[in-house]
Amino acid sequence: LPLKQVRKLAEMCKELIIMEEGFPVIEEQLRSILDTNHKIHGRLDGTLPRDGELNPDLVAKALGKEVKSFYQPSPIVESRPPALCQGCGHRDLYDALNEVVKEHEGAKVFSDIGCYTLGALPPFRAIDTCIDMGASITMAKGASEAGVHPAIAVIGDSTFTHSGITGLLDCVNENANVTILILDNETTAMTGGQDSAGTGRIESICQGIGVDENHIHVITPLKKYFEEMKELIRKEITHEGVSVIIPRRECIQTLSRKKKAQK
Ligand code: SF4
């Protein structure tokens, strides 16, 4: 923080209110920088809620203003959690994966950060973990070493190129008994549809890292390939080593944006 400016500003104020989205990072820093003569308000003293999104009502209340309208949803609106888009290829993949996982009592599915993390929620409940970017493959490897079978990793194509490649290399180096699903929606859907660093090259990246090409498969996650998806996952689970399955179907949101742009 620019200490000189912060102190100068604080000297001109009786009280400071820090309104931060997310964690009260600046508020904490100011509390350590400024002396105790300064009253600092924010998320840490309860002026604002400790977590959650800020909205105009919360800000008005914090400023001591009259709160005219509460941002409450209408009572007729049913609250609902976020969900995978209808028609998303991840849905078809999770349907198939769930069927296969049910056949193995000790199966664990380690996932990652992306749209596909929504597979943790009903109706899929298809993944067991989501820790941080890249953790799916490394956790599956660790679990496999600890005796979990099948140890399945689910990671998106963008997350894979961001921080999954090193985990896969480790799996190859140690010939880990893992089945890795790289859900390729051919975009970085969560951040607006940019290409990922590996768009169009996921198989060759896996091959370059050293995954046996006989155990790298691309499938299209569509309902009509439901049986084929299950068969492939079943087959690769029995392979004692590293398998990579790439269910590839473009994100329907990106696709519809492209189509609109072409009109
Ligand atoms: S944004 Fe794309 S990848 Fe994400 S859930 Fe929707 S269709 Fe699937």
Spatial order of strands in the largest sheet: 4-3-5-6-8-7
Assign an overall shape: elongated
What is the correct CATH architecture of the largest domain? 3-Layer(aba) Sandwich
Ions, cofactors and other ligands present here are:
iron/sulfur cluster
Overview of this protein structure:
- With 263 residues, the protein is of the alpha/beta class.
- It has two domains: 3-62, no CATH class; 89-250, Rossmann fold (3-Layer(aba) Sandwich).
- It has helices at residues 3-11, 25-33, 56-62, 89-101, 135-145, 157-173, 202-209, 226-238, 252-262; strands at 15-17, 39-41, 108-111, 129-130, 151-156, 178-183, 216-219, 242-247.
- The strands form two sheets. Strands 4-3-5-6-8-7 form a six-stranded parallel sheet, with helices on both faces. Strands 1-2 form a two-stranded parallel sheet.
- The longest helix is centred in the middle third of the chain and has 17 residues, at 157-173.
- Bound molecules: iron/sulfur cluster.
- Iron/sulfur cluster is lined by residues 84-85, 88, 90, 115, 185, 189, 251-253.
- Residues 84-85, 88, 90, 115, 185, 189, 251-253 line the site of iron/sulfur cluster.
